[in-house]
Design brief:
The structure holds 2 protein chains of 2 kinds. Chain A is built from 13 helices and 8 strands. Chain A is α+β, with helices and mostly antiparallel strands. In chain A, a hairpin with a 2-residue loop joins strand 2 and strand 3. Chain B is globular. The chains are: A alpha+beta, B alpha+beta. Chain A: InterPro entries: Acyl-CoA_Oxase/DH_mid-dom, Acyl-CoA_Oxase/DH_mid-dom_sf, AcylCo_DH-like_C, AcylCo_DH/oxidase_C, AcylCoA_DH/ox_N, AcylCoA_DH/ox_N_sf, AcylCoA_DH/oxidase_NM_dom_sf, Mycobact_Acyl-CoA_DH.
């Protein structure tokens, strides 16, 4: 079954039902693609295949406009697809997260012909993208970033350094934030650019994170030329692009995270018979809290409403729930998680270690609390 | 019936006026106002507006009994024996009769019939018993203002009428938990307001307290759990699964427990003084948090339910 613009399911219930049938029909292929990968390259190849399968059949084209490779309809329909995929036992691939995090910003800020050219490549799995935000001196204080873009003819010429760029080594493009204003221009002097990763002048070094993955990379940019036509939004308007991306990450991508945490809690119930009920209950309560928050955000984004500072709630609950869940797993699964190297034990270990970063990446928990204090509680600031 | 925002604001205003005019006989005033009809027509609105107000105003009276009784049909009882905090069911029923041990929200008049939920052979029994013969003892205890009563005594099997079993108690419990969640929301919001006002106006080291990051982060944490509790309360009306009500109470308890802790710390010595209102909120919150399941009991209950079924309930669907 392949969806077309004329046959897309109209309601959430229709998507759930029809996608359920599709999942059943394609279960052999899905199991193959979702089997744990041996290495990063194999994992990404499988994920691209999965992305392509879901794109070709139409499911993840739901909620994107036709001119950008989509089938139309509301964005929330796509959220159902991810949820059903996950509850059927197929964890959402990174590319799903990337599509939700970067896709809306491209749709909104890229020049129309650029968006029409690029976005279908991301959605169909033919490309993988990364985001060049953090720098060695600009993490939580993102607006102090120094990576410089200088105009030269029809190009921007970029020099500087980026760090914690997830999976840059397999990425085809990078959504880059660079300083186009004066050095002290803060959030007003930043411009968002789309950089091809095969451009000369990019030196990339993977950093191994504590879970053993070489996920994060350092990017050294030495006179890298990006055509001016690759500017996203206004020159000096990169902060708005970054905020759209962070809102998507804290919002729609959190919905995916929540479906995955539910699946992992389900695994834990099966694998840890001695899990105290109060711990299982608290894990469920926290994941449910994230679900309630991100459900609201997904619906608001789907309707095109301004979500203000509320995704900061989502982001805080995402890390709170994730850290609680995997700390509980580590404590109650027994010694295998500490000493054994079978894939299941290694998987729990990996998820625990990775969960430690959840209150740091994408805007640290302290930043979220600052946002809530300032923008929601409206507490007075420093004089 | 579906109520729009304007009507909701009007209702809220009307109930606030009523609470101001009738601090000592709110229940009678609400009866004349027709709140019982509203509870039938639109329980979500009736419970939300009234119980949030009860929390914000620290009302002496509560309509918790009315809400719990409305969850089952055809009961003419005047009040409910609430189980003692810390126990799922503190009254017992066997061939020798009922041993009542629990709490009333107020003294119950002689001659009345009350409902009591009991541990019984094969599960829970909800029974109607005469209040006469039960010992009622004023039990102000920790809370100030609300006339709690400890109720104890034995009822002869011949005087007991069977009202329902597990299913009836499950509905009563869910209704009570939703109401308590709304009241806790009111209490939490008022406590947070007290701390925001205090830290925004009080200057130390030449700065308003609220400008210090450690203060801001504590208040943000309270606010986060408030947001979660609001959403969990709203979601408790969309699913018929009683687990949704359990989750609403649990979220509300986390909110007020966090608020009690952080707000008191941020109020400094003021929050420890008798004349500041804070301790009244703290006292009421602790008592309401513990009724019909405290934090650990609720979490254990949620956990037992998902562990036994081996699956996660699909609450709060998109």
């Amino acid at each position: 079954m392949t969806l077309t613009a004329d046959t897309i399911p109209g309601t959430i219930a229709d998507v759930r039902e029809q996608f359920g049938v599709w999942l059943h029909e394609n279960s052999d292929r899905l199991r193959e693609l979702c089997a744990p990968g041996q290495d990063v390259a194999a994992t990404f190849t499988a994920q691209r295949e999965l992305q392509k399968l879901l794109f070709d059949s139409g499911w993840i084209r739901l909620g994107w406009p036709a001119e950008l490779g989509g089938l139309g309809g509301e964005m929330v329909l796509r959220a159902v697809v991810v949820e059903e995929l996950c509850s059927a036992g197929y964890p959402p691939p990174f590319s799903f997260g990337t599509q939700e995090v970067l896709g809306p910003a491209i749709a909104r800020y890229a020049p129309p012909e650029l968006a029409a050219d690029l976005l279908p490549r991301l959605l169909s799995g033919s490309e993988y993208w990364c985001q060049g935000f953090s720098e060695p001196g600009a993490g939580s204080d993102l607006a102090s970033l120094r990576c410089k873009a200088v105009e030269d003819g029809d190009d921007w010429v970029i020099s500087g350094e980026k760090v914690w760029t997830s999976w840059a080594q397999v990425a085809d493009r990078c959504l880059l934030l660079a300083r186009t204003g004066e050095p002290n221009s803060g959030s007003r002097g930043i411009t968002a650019l789309m950089m091809d990763m095969d451009t000369p002048g990019i030196d990339l070094r993977p950093l191994v994170s504590m879970n053993g993955d070489a996920e994060f990379c350092s990017l050294y940019l030495d006179d890298v030329r990006i055509p001016r036509s690759r500017t996203l939004g206004e020159i000096g308007g990169g902060w708005a692009v970054a905020m759209t991306i962070l809102a998507s990450e804290r919002g729609a991508a959190a919905w995916q995270r929540q479906t995955w945490m539910r699946a992992r809690l389900h695994d834990l119930l099966k694998q840890a018979p001695d899990l105290p009920p109060a711990v299982a209950g608290e894990a469920f309560e926290l994941i449910h809290a994230l679900r309630l928050l991100s459900r609201r955000t997904v619906h608001a984004l789907s309707r095109g409403e301004d979500i203000g500072a509320t995704p900061s709630f989502d982001k805080l609950l995402m890390s709170t729930a994730e850290k609680f869940l995997f700390a509980a797993a580590l404590e109650h699964l027994g010694s295998a998680t500490l000493f054994d190297d079978d894939p299941t034990s290694a998987g729990w270990r990996n998820d625990y270690l990775y969960s430690r970063a959840s209150s740091i990446y994408g805007g640290a928990a302290e930043i979220q609390r600052d946002i809530i204090a300032g923008r929601i509680l409206r507490l007075p600031g420093r004089r | 019936m579906s109520i729009d925002r304007t009507e909701l604001d009007l209702l809220r205003g009307a109930l606030e006026d009523l609470a101001t005019a009738h601090p000592a006989d709110l229940r009678d005033a609400l009866r004349d106002f027709g709140w019982a009809d509203l509870l039938v027509e639109d329980p979500a609105v009736a419970v939300e507006v009234l119980f949030r107000l009860q929390g914000e105003r620290l009302t002496d009276e509560t309509l918790l009994d009315e809400v719990v009784l409305a969850a089952i049909e055809g009961s003419a009882a005047a009040a409910v024996v609430l189980p003692l905090p810390g126990q799922e069911l503190s009254s017992r029923y066997d061939s020798e009769g009922v041993r009542v041990d629990g709490v009333f929200t107020r003294p119950v008049e002689a001659g009345a019939t009350v409902l009591v939920s009991c541990r019984a052979l094969g599960g829970t029994a909800v029974l109607a018993v005469p209040v006469d013969g039960l010992l009622q003892k004023a039990a102000q205890g920790l809370d100030l203002g609300r006339p709690w009563v400890r109720v104890r005594g034995d009822v002869h099997p011949g005087a007991v009428a069977h009202v329902g079993g597990d299913a009836a108690w499950e509905r009563m419990l869910a209704a009570g938990r939703r109401a308590l969640a709304a009241e806790l929301l009111g209490l939490g919001t008022r406590m947070l307001d007290l701390a925001v006002e205090h830290t925004s106006s009080r200057v130390q080291f030449g700065q308003a307290l609220a400008t210090f990051q450690v203060v801001r982060h504590k208040l943000a944490d309270v606010r986060v759990w408030g947001e979660v509790a609001e959403l969990a309360f709203a979601a408790a009306w969309e699913d018929t699964d009683p687990l949704a009500a359990t989750l609403a109470k649990s979220a509300a308890v986390r909110y007020t427990a966090t608020a009690r802790e952080h707000v008191q710390q941020l109020l400094g010595g003021m929050g420890f003084s008798w004349e500041h209102d804070f301790h009244r909120y703290l006292r009421r919150a602790i008592v309401l948090e513990s009724l019909l399941g405290g934090a650990s009991a609720l979490r254990a209950e949620i956990g037992t339910s998902i562990c036994e079924s081996g699956r996660l309930p699909d609450l709060a669907a998109l």
